[in-house]
Write a structure and sequence with these properties.
The chain has about 220 residues and is mainly α. The chain has 6 helices and no strands. Helices cover about 90% and strands about 0% of the residues.
Length: about 220
Protein backbone atom coordinates (compact mmCIF):
# COMPACT_ATOMS: atom_id res chain seq x y z
CA UNK A 1 0.00 0.00 0.00
CA UNK A 2 2.65 2.50 1.09
CA UNK A 3 4.88 1.36 -1.75
CA UNK A 4 2.12 2.10 -4.25
CA UNK A 5 1.50 5.54 -2.74
CA UNK A 6 5.22 6.28 -2.80
CA UNK A 7 5.36 5.28 -6.47
CA UNK A 8 2.39 7.53 -7.26
CA UNK A 9 3.94 10.45 -5.41
CA UNK A 10 7.28 9.96 -7.17
CA UNK A 11 5.49 9.78 -10.53
CA UNK A 12 3.46 12.91 -9.79
CA UNK A 13 6.61 14.79 -8.73
CA UNK A 14 8.40 13.68 -11.89
CA UNK A 15 5.51 14.87 -14.07
CA UNK A 16 5.36 18.16 -12.20
CA UNK A 17 9.11 18.63 -12.67
CA UNK A 18 8.77 17.89 -16.39
CA UNK A 19 6.00 20.48 -16.69
CA UNK A 20 8.12 23.07 -14.88
CA UNK A 21 11.16 22.28 -17.03
CA UNK A 22 9.05 22.57 -20.17
CA UNK A 23 7.43 25.83 -19.04
CA UNK A 24 10.74 27.44 -18.07
CA UNK A 25 12.90 25.66 -20.66
CA UNK A 26 14.23 28.90 -22.19
CA UNK A 27 15.08 30.36 -18.77
CA UNK A 28 16.81 27.11 -17.78
CA UNK A 29 18.82 27.07 -21.02
CA UNK A 30 19.96 30.65 -20.46
CA UNK A 31 20.89 29.87 -16.85
CA UNK A 32 22.92 26.82 -17.94
CA UNK A 33 24.70 28.95 -20.51
CA UNK A 34 25.59 31.50 -17.82
CA UNK A 35 26.90 28.71 -15.58
CA UNK A 36 28.93 27.29 -18.46
CA UNK A 37 30.38 30.74 -19.16
CA UNK A 38 31.40 31.09 -15.51
CA UNK A 39 33.11 27.69 -15.64
CA UNK A 40 34.79 28.60 -18.91
CA UNK A 41 35.99 31.88 -17.40
CA UNK A 42 37.53 30.00 -14.47
CA UNK A 43 39.22 27.57 -16.86
CA UNK A 44 40.63 30.48 -18.87
CA UNK A 45 41.99 32.08 -15.70
CA UNK A 46 43.63 28.79 -14.72
CA UNK A 47 45.10 28.45 -18.20
CA UNK A 48 46.47 31.99 -18.05
CA UNK A 49 48.03 31.22 -14.66
CA UNK A 50 49.65 28.04 -16.00
CA UNK A 51 51.01 29.86 -19.04
CA UNK A 52 52.42 32.57 -16.79
CA UNK A 53 54.08 29.97 -14.56
CA UNK A 54 55.41 28.16 -17.65
CA UNK A 55 57.04 31.35 -18.86
CA UNK A 56 58.59 31.95 -15.46
CA UNK A 57 59.93 28.39 -15.30
CA UNK A 58 61.25 28.70 -18.83
CA UNK A 59 63.12 31.87 -17.91
CA UNK A 60 64.59 30.16 -14.84
CA UNK A 61 65.54 27.17 -16.99
CA UNK A 62 67.44 29.33 -19.42
CA UNK A 63 69.08 31.18 -16.53
CA UNK A 64 70.30 27.89 -15.03
CA UNK A 65 71.57 26.74 -18.43
CA UNK A 66 73.48 30.03 -18.77
CA UNK A 67 75.03 29.65 -15.30
CA UNK A 68 76.03 26.03 -16.02
CA UNK A 69 77.66 27.07 -19.26
CA UNK A 70 79.53 29.89 -17.50
CA UNK A 71 80.75 27.71 -14.59
CA UNK A 72 81.78 24.97 -16.97
CA UNK A 73 84.08 27.39 -18.81
CA UNK A 74 85.50 28.63 -15.53
CA UNK A 75 86.05 25.07 -14.26
CA UNK A 76 87.84 24.17 -17.48
CA UNK A 77 90.05 27.24 -17.09
CA UNK A 78 90.82 26.28 -13.47
CA UNK A 79 91.75 22.75 -14.53
CA UNK A 80 93.91 24.15 -17.26
CA UNK A 81 95.74 26.12 -14.58
CA UNK A 82 95.84 22.96 -12.44
CA UNK A 83 93.70 24.59 -9.77
CA UNK A 84 91.78 21.42 -8.95
CA UNK A 85 90.36 22.73 -5.67
CA UNK A 86 88.64 25.65 -7.33
CA UNK A 87 87.66 23.41 -10.26
CA UNK A 88 86.10 20.95 -7.79
CA UNK A 89 84.04 23.71 -6.20
CA UNK A 90 82.85 24.72 -9.65
CA UNK A 91 82.06 21.07 -10.43
CA UNK A 92 79.94 20.79 -7.27
CA UNK A 93 78.06 23.95 -8.19
CA UNK A 94 77.56 22.67 -11.74
CA UNK A 95 76.19 19.37 -10.38
CA UNK A 96 73.66 21.20 -8.21
CA UNK A 97 72.65 23.41 -11.12
CA UNK A 98 72.27 20.39 -13.40
CA UNK A 99 70.01 18.71 -10.81
CA UNK A 100 67.99 21.92 -10.60
CA UNK A 101 67.94 22.09 -14.39
CA UNK A 102 66.53 18.56 -14.59
CA UNK A 103 63.78 19.36 -12.09
CA UNK A 104 62.86 22.54 -13.93
CA UNK A 105 62.75 20.70 -17.25
CA UNK A 106 60.33 18.17 -15.76
CA UNK A 107 58.25 21.02 -14.37
CA UNK A 108 58.18 22.72 -17.75
CA UNK A 109 57.21 19.42 -19.44
CA UNK A 110 54.36 18.91 -16.95
CA UNK A 111 53.21 22.46 -17.53
CA UNK A 112 53.35 21.92 -21.29
CA UNK A 113 51.12 18.86 -20.97
CA UNK A 114 48.73 20.58 -18.56
CA UNK A 115 48.52 23.69 -20.70
CA UNK A 116 47.82 21.64 -23.82
CA UNK A 117 45.05 19.68 -22.09
CA UNK A 118 43.47 22.75 -20.54
CA UNK A 119 43.70 24.71 -23.78
CA UNK A 120 41.85 21.91 -25.56
CA UNK A 121 39.24 21.88 -22.80
CA UNK A 122 38.81 25.66 -23.07
CA UNK A 123 38.43 25.46 -26.85
CA UNK A 124 35.92 22.64 -26.53
CA UNK A 125 34.00 24.53 -23.85
CA UNK A 126 34.00 27.66 -25.98
CA UNK A 127 32.61 25.77 -29.00
CA UNK A 128 29.95 24.14 -26.83
CA UNK A 129 28.86 27.50 -25.46
CA UNK A 130 28.64 28.89 -28.99
CA UNK A 131 26.52 25.89 -29.95
CA UNK A 132 24.39 26.38 -26.83
CA UNK A 133 23.80 30.03 -27.69
CA UNK A 134 22.79 29.10 -31.22
CA UNK A 135 20.56 26.37 -29.83
CA UNK A 136 19.01 28.88 -27.42
CA UNK A 137 18.24 31.21 -30.34
CA UNK A 138 16.57 28.33 -32.17
CA UNK A 139 14.68 27.29 -29.02
CA UNK A 140 13.41 30.85 -28.54
CA UNK A 141 12.23 30.95 -32.15
CA UNK A 142 10.45 27.60 -31.76
CA UNK A 143 8.86 28.70 -28.47
CA UNK A 144 7.71 31.93 -30.17
CA UNK A 145 6.16 29.89 -32.99
CA UNK A 146 4.49 27.64 -30.43
CA UNK A 147 3.08 30.70 -28.65
CA UNK A 148 1.71 32.04 -31.93
CA UNK A 149 0.24 28.63 -32.76
CA UNK A 150 -1.33 28.46 -29.29
CA UNK A 151 -2.96 31.86 -29.77
CA UNK A 152 -4.09 30.79 -33.23
CA UNK A 153 -5.63 27.63 -31.80
CA UNK A 154 -7.44 29.74 -29.21
CA UNK A 155 -8.72 32.01 -31.96
CA UNK A 156 -9.84 29.08 -34.06
CA UNK A 157 -11.59 27.58 -31.03
CA UNK A 158 -13.36 30.87 -30.44
CA UNK A 159 -14.36 31.02 -34.10
CA UNK A 160 -15.65 27.48 -33.86
CA UNK A 161 -17.71 28.46 -30.82
CA UNK A 162 -19.10 31.46 -32.69
CA UNK A 163 -20.00 29.28 -35.65
CA UNK A 164 -21.67 26.78 -33.37
CA UNK A 165 -23.65 29.55 -31.66
CA UNK A 166 -24.72 30.92 -35.04
CA UNK A 167 -25.83 27.48 -36.09
CA UNK A 168 -27.89 27.09 -32.92
CA UNK A 169 -29.52 30.50 -33.45
CA UNK A 170 -30.37 29.60 -37.04
CA UNK A 171 -31.76 26.32 -35.84
CA UNK A 172 -33.97 28.05 -33.29
CA UNK A 173 -35.13 30.72 -35.73
CA UNK A 174 -35.79 28.13 -38.39
CA UNK A 175 -38.25 26.21 -36.25
CA UNK A 176 -41.99 26.60 -36.90
CA UNK A 177 -43.97 29.12 -34.86
CA UNK A 178 -45.60 27.04 -32.09
CA UNK A 179 -48.56 29.45 -31.80
CA UNK A 180 -49.27 29.36 -35.52
CA UNK A 181 -48.87 25.63 -35.43
CA UNK A 182 -51.44 25.42 -32.58
CA UNK A 183 -53.95 27.48 -34.58
CA UNK A 184 -53.47 25.25 -37.60
CA UNK A 185 -53.96 22.15 -35.48
CA UNK A 186 -57.13 23.68 -34.00
CA UNK A 187 -58.50 24.36 -37.49
CA UNK A 188 -57.66 20.83 -38.52
CA UNK A 189 -59.53 19.49 -35.49
CA UNK A 190 -62.55 21.65 -36.30
CA UNK A 191 -62.53 20.39 -39.88
CA UNK A 192 -62.33 16.82 -38.72
CA UNK A 193 -65.26 17.33 -36.31
CA UNK A 194 -67.31 19.07 -39.08
CA UNK A 195 -67.89 22.07 -36.77
CA UNK A 196 -66.66 24.47 -39.41
CA UNK A 197 -68.86 22.89 -42.09
CA UNK A 198 -71.98 23.52 -39.96
CA UNK A 199 -70.90 27.11 -39.42
CA UNK A 200 -70.32 27.68 -43.11
CA UNK A 201 -73.73 26.21 -44.05
CA UNK A 202 -75.52 28.25 -41.35
CA UNK A 203 -73.79 31.41 -42.59
CA UNK A 204 -75.25 30.75 -46.09
CA UNK A 205 -78.80 30.32 -44.68
CA UNK A 206 -78.97 26.58 -44.56
CA UNK A 207 -80.44 25.84 -41.17
CA UNK A 208 -80.39 27.83 -37.94
CA UNK A 209 -77.37 29.96 -37.04
CA UNK A 210 -74.76 28.32 -34.87
CA UNK A 211 -73.28 31.61 -33.62
CA UNK A 212 -74.63 35.01 -32.68
CA UNK A 213 -73.43 37.61 -35.11
CA UNK A 214 -73.14 41.36 -34.94
CA UNK A 215 -76.15 41.62 -37.29
CA UNK A 216 -78.25 39.60 -34.84
CA UNK A 217 -77.32 41.91 -32.00
CA UNK A 218 -78.10 45.02 -34.07
CA UNK A 219 -81.55 43.69 -35.06
CA UNK A 220 -82.32 42.85 -31.44
CA UNK A 221 -81.43 46.39 -30.38
CA UNK A 222 -83.66 47.91 -33.11
CA UNK A 223 -86.55 45.72 -32.02
CA UNK A 224 -86.43 47.22 -28.52
CA UNK A 225 -87.12 50.74 -29.83
Amino acid sequence: MFGTLRTLVVGANARAEERVRDTYAIELIEQKIREAQVSLGAAKATLASLIQRHRAEDRQLKSVETRIADLTKRAEAALKDKNEELAMQAADAIAQLENELEMRRKTVDRLDTRILQLRQSVETGHRRIVDLKQGAITAKAVRHEQSIQSRLNTTLTAQSSVAEAEELIAQVLGKDDPFEQAEILSDIEHDLSHDTLTDRMAAQGYGSATKITGTDVLQRLKAKK
